[in-house]
Amino acid sequence: MFYSIPLLLVTQILKKLMAALALSRRQYYDRINDLRTAGLIERHKGRYEVTSFGRIVYSLLGVIRNASERYWRLYAIDTLRFSAIAKDYDNKIVYMILDDI
């Protein structure tokens, strides 16, 4: 009886997670396997934990997301650099364009 309570709790959490992600049980475990194969997570004492490599990849994804959200601002900076205005180019313009980064 003692071991069935945690298993029941884990099963309920797993079902909620799969429902939230709209994944079948097979899809869920395929995704977990892909993350393990990539070295992003490891199984340790029955739990999945993010590896150091996984933490670095996750933080870099944030940098990429920020850059993609600001694509047009970065494009404007490149346009200024390669335009006729380049001789009058000033870093103050860049800081004005990227004021929230």
Strand and helix map with partners:
Blueprint: H1 4-21, H2 25-37, E1 41-44, E2 47-50, H3 52-69, H4 71-81, H5 91-97
Antiparallel strand pairs: 1-2
Write a short abstract of this structure.
This protein is mostly helical and 101 residues long.
Structure description:
The protein has a domain at 70-101. It has a two-stranded antiparallel sheet with strand order 1-2. Helix content is 66%, strand content 8%. With 101 residues, it is mainly alpha-helical.
What would the keywords be for this entry?
single chain, 101 residues, 5 helices, 66% helix, elongated
With strands numbered from the N-terminus, the spatial order across the biggest sheet is 1-2
What is the strand content?
5-15%
Element order, helices and strands? HHEEHHH
Mean pLDDT across residues: 78
Largest sheet: 2 strands, antiparallel
Distance between the termini: 54 Å
**Strand count:** 2
Which structural class best describes the helix and strand composition? mainly alpha
Helix % is: 55-70%
Report Rg.
23 Å
Please tally the helical runs, counting DSSP H or I stretches of 4 or more residues: 5
Overall outline: elongated
* Low-confidence region ranges: 1-5
